[in-house]
# Entry
Amino acid sequence: MKEIILFDSVEEAIKMMVHRETKRVKLEGNTYALTRFNNDFYFYEALCPHQQYSLLQDQIGIQPEVICGWHGYRFSLEGGEEFDKRCRNLKVQKLQLNNKSALFIQF
# Structure
């Protein structure tokens, strides 16, 4: 796995995204979602594990979760669990700070 920097600093990330906003991220030919919830940032697969519906336009809940617009499946952004255990977990990771204060993911 390698470290991929998405933002040079927390301040930059906060300026670029508002609370509960989701952006599309392309990495190595695949599409992912990036969501800000309060001052935390989550990187996750862009398709619902249930039936591959896009999560890029879907709702971010009042807790750190993404809600699939097709069947209403709710996935925790903290660990990816579907709240009712009806399908596999969403692959998600919280952005981390490196020793230079940049926000990154392990990819």
About this structure: The domain at 3-106 is CATH 2.102.10.10 (Rieske Iron-sulfur Protein). The chain has one domain: 3-106. Strands lie at 3-7, 22-27, 30-37, 40-45, 59-60, 65-67, 74-76, 92-94, 96-97, 103-106.
